[in-house]
TrEMBL record:
This is 5'-nucleotidase. It comes from the Eukaryota. Its EC number is 3.1.3.5. Keywords: Cytoplasm, Hydrolase, Magnesium, Metal-binding, Nucleotide metabolism, Nucleotide-binding. It is found in: Cytoplasm. It comes from Oryzias latipes (Japanese rice fish). GO terms for molecular function: 5'-nucleotidase activity; magnesium ion binding; nucleotide binding. Monomer.
Length: 289
């Protein structure tokens, strides 16, 4: 048993099942493992000292690259749509068109701001974004063991990459699938590239990238990490999957959502701002006890 699974933040509906999955994965060896993770509020912190930490979108919202008027409009969108996103009484089908509406409106507002590419790094460095405690070990250990890390994010890929680059952990084994900005030849934002990736269609994101999953055919064991029920479909593109261990961060609205998380994730971490448990699982799977 991994001692960290007895941490007070850990909840499991079926601890024996977790043991069985871990046992199978250890037996298969770490060269059959891939890690698929969400980014905002999964690899980054939800809050620090009682204050909410920013998502990739918030980093822009709070920066000086956008006007006060635009900030106000984005804030209005957040207060309109975020309660819908986390409303456990609504079905995914019901939320879906509303989430698309939110993301599309937000992206349109950002495009209107004519954001300059060369200002993104500064927006990130001046922000209060924080990767979860233990991130260095997490990223470095995966890199040292040549285990692919696929990050699926409904955030903004350019910002996300800048966050991990500035943290010194954008290693060669990291692949990011997200919403990327399209800049014109003078480096000004003119659109977002490709299909919109939002919280409930990461599965399509996964399937669009099946070419990428092809390369991972020899890695049928998946460690999946997320903080929303929409994140559970991120591994849908994986073919011939043998084992999947799902770790869910329950950051907010704990009582209302705890049961649905326990029903869906193998390990639920309640208000845990660290990567201590995922790191312990990784150490176990790579034979570093």
């Amino acid at each position: 048993m991994i001692p960290e699974l007895s941490n007070p933040s850990v909840c499991m509906k079926d601890p024996q099942r977790v043991q069985d999955i871990l046992h199978s994965m250890v037996k298969a060896g770490s060269n059959t493992l891939q890690v698929i993770s969400d980014f905002d509020m999964t690899l980054t912190r939800f809050s620090h000292n009682g204050k909410r930490c920013p998502t990739c979108h918030n980093i822009l919202d709070n920066s000086k690259v956008i006007s006060a008027d635009c900030k106000q409009q984005l804030d209005h969108l957040l207060h309109t749509y975020y309660p819908i996103e986390i409303d456990s009484s609504r079905s995914v089908e019901e939320k879906l068109p509303l989430m698309v509406e939110w993301w599309t409106k937000a992206h349109d507002l950002l495009v209107e701001q004519k954001i300059r590419k060369d200002l993104l790094a500064e927006a990130v460095s001046e922000s209060e974004v924080m990767l979860r405690e233990g991130f260095q070990l997490f990223f470095d250990h995966l890199h040292e063991h040549s285990i692919p890390l696929l990050i699926f994010s409904a955030g903004i890929g350019d910002i996300l990459e800048e966050v991990i680059r500035q943290a010194g952990v954008f290693h060669s084994n990291v692949n990011v699938f997200s919403n990327y900005m399209d800049f014109d030849e003078s480096g000004v934002l003119r659109a977002f590239k490709g299909e919109l990736i939002h919280i409930y269609n990461k599965r399509e994101g996964a399937l669009l990238n099946t070419g990428h999953f092809q390369e991972l055919r020899t890695r049928p064991n998946v460690l999946l990490m997320g903080d929303s029920l929409g994140d559970l479909s991120m591994a849908d593109g994986v073919q011939d999957m043998e084992n999947i261990l799902k770790i869910g961060f329950l950051n907010d609205k704990v009582e209302e959502r705890k049961q649905s998380y326990l029903d869906s994730y193998d390990i639920v971490l309640i208000k845990d701002e660290t990567l201590e448990v995922p790191n312990a699982v990784l150490m176990h799977l790579t034979g570093n006890k």
